[in-house]
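Changelog excerpt

This revision adds worked examples to the README so contributors can see how folded entries look when concatenated. The first example is reproduced verbatim below.
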Amino acid sequence: MKVGVLTLGCKVNLYESEYVIHLLKEKGYEIKDFSDFCDVYIINTCTVTNTSDTKSRKMIHRAIRQNPNACVVAMGCFIEANKDYREDGLDIVIGTKDKSNIVNILDEWFKKRKEIRKLYGKDDKNDFEDMYIDNFSKRTRAFVKIQDGCENYCSYCIIPYVRGKCRSKDPNKVISEITSLVNNGYQEIVLTGIHTGNYGVDLDITFAELLQKIVKIPGLKRLRISSIEPIEITDEVLEVLKNTNIIVDHLHIPLQAGSDEILKLMNRKYDLTEYKNIIKKIRKIRPNISISTDIIVGFPNESESLFEETIKTVKEIGFSKIHVFPYSKRKNTEAANMENQVKEEEKKRRAHKLIEVSKDLENNYMNKFIGTEMEVLIENYKESYSYGHTSNFLHVKIKGEFKSNTFITVKLKEINYPYIIGEVIE
């Protein structure tokens, strides 16, 4: 049978979808493009914003239209946040638990041809759902999910309610999985989780101790951390960063707002002084490191002057890239009930302005490396150019075809935003 799998949202979802694909292949299913006419469609949904919800619904509807006789499966965060969601033609709904049981669930549906709903209460998601991948289809970088759940309860965020409490993957299993991926030729491993830096809070190990173990894996060339909260960049983590070049020269550290007033309303666990001090510590160890961030604009009570304070803050810190999100009102969160909600058109205006600031900061950061020589991990080839990333996440475009998953040393010649043109050094 033919299966189309579509993934929305974060890198954790990408990892979980890859595991689902792995299980289906083992069972003999043929994996096809989601746009193809298939017997089964699986949508791994997202609910982080209203736009994510809309896209999740749209993709479910699309699958039902493409083949009304297909078995249509919706799983993940959107389903968990909307437990009563139903659609004619939607056959299986799975929350954020039981994705690893997809084969048995499909077997059950094909026997009975009746709707299946696998949803649980918040306290039923207390165990880490083990998944193990030793090969990724169509990817140069391999993701490894080491953690699930979040207990920060930022006032704008629905994710703690849909992903449950923090739980971590057994460190021996993490090491085993990464070792297998490295032995299978992967040059770069990306650690991912819902709250990655909180790894080990439920085990007798810290995130820093896990990093120390990982960087010793023979043959591992690059280790990337998908995202880490500022308060989790401890002195121990900094010490690992200082003593190894396996961890890449890029960290994604969410700031979310550039004013203490909004950070407090967001229930973030730091203020601007603490955040800036952490950045200074990192740059003392790695002066040329790329630091990207997330910013939410138009949060309730964000005045024009507070927004301008965010603009000033991000320029002062000098991020290499900003992921900009207009505030999205999520039901059942504290922020949804706050007064002084910002109008949608104003959110869009602020988002557009901050995106322009981000582009300037990106160009400033890229300019620092023009004329230097750097290693690029080749990822793909398209229309006479090869594309890849440096350790510090510069996206490089190189004339000619070079084998994916190999390192090429290039001289960085000029900016062709969002790329830097690289020239191969013979």
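The second example, added in the same revision:
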Amino acid sequence: MSSMALKIFPLLFIFLLPVALYGQQTDDDPFKRDPIFTRPLDDFFGVGNEEGEEVETEVESAEKALKRLNVTGIDLGGNLEAGPYYSNALYSQYPNLPMIHFNRVNGLFLGVKKERMQWHRYGNLFNIPQIQPHGFIGYGTASKEWEYAVGLEKLIGERKRLMIGGEFHRATSTEDHYRVGLTETSITSFLASYDFLDYHQMEGYGLYAVYRTQRWIEAAFSFNRDTFSSLSQSTSYSLFGRGSVYRPNPPIDQFSDEIDLDRYGISLSFNPRNVLLNDRFTVSTTIGAELADNSGSDEEYRYNKYWTTLKLFYNFEPGSVLRWRLNAGGITGNAPDFKDFYLGGIGTLRGSPYKFFQGNQMVSSNLEVQFGRPSSRAGEWIRDYNLHILLFLDSGWTRQIPDMVNGSNPFSGFSEFSFAGLQHDAGAGIGTGAFRVELAWPLKEFDRQPAFWIRFNPTF
């Protein structure tokens, strides 16, 4: 661990240096999350706060949550649970499924949960200020397994800019949370056997530290030691399905069903909550690394995984919005199959077969244009209660680069990249902020039969 620490801390210093130098203040806090399901009981009865100000009633809070749901979909705004979509970029180094979900390995999972990595609603534990426990416990009705996480967090400093925490856990998780919403896929699984995620079990512990400025920057470091295990399908039930049409849940690797990994995670995000930079434009970006090339990991599976995401939103005319997401990543060393990059299907190349492309080097782009009715609300570009038209172009490239298995440069494989090698899928859709239908056609590699999607979230 000492040799790896010598490699990690210079990287951590580089990541945290701009955070320490940048600290713009503002009255609004984009990191605040206050959905209806985590409000104190006093708020529901309309009790005023200590300064005598009135707070929202339950009805007002529900209306506010409903409006936000129509803007952000079921998952992406953190209205039901923060999850990986409204938390730090390293959230999914830990178990990330909702406290109530349905999938082909757990069946119906029922649990209670207190979220990790949240910046507000801290109290006193044992008279220690700004500290709180977090975690969950629940039971899978098909897997017949109890799952849990037990953790503790502490905010440091008068301005509450630094969070430290840790957690023990044994639970089901997924690497596919970026493809489709976790609650969204529970709905499609339960109704029609469409479970778009692949799952594994993780058992172990982790420690983390997260630092933020008032508005723009969030950086994090995490150490995780886990045993990852393959899971098999435990149920074929769906409400309207006839027999099992679920995909088999794949093993974590073709050569092993249980792998021990020690991972150091680093992330740095600019504008992670997509706060508007001006009235018509905003951009956000995140870079991250998962470093498992160390003596604590199984000898056959030592790797370093690097990735970055850029999101851009531009209101180029009233009621019309350009949305663009660019992803890139590289893996050095020998990563298990479930850590590879996959493109194809929902959330990536929407006209191509699901996870058809696999590799240790990846570039993907999702470009969307929405045409809808302009909104008169500040900061809302399209009236999401009304239908809007959607046009999109998905592009992607991924390859398995042999030289990267024995190398240490995550950019070396990009010498094989070419724009002519990109797979392109184009499509159109119609919907609101919380519901949409899409048709996507592959422009290369496959026949021109369209794929049909029903979504309860925006793609990003």
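Reviewer comment on example two: The radius of gyration is 22 Å. The chain has two domains: 1-23+61-238+252-273, 277-460.
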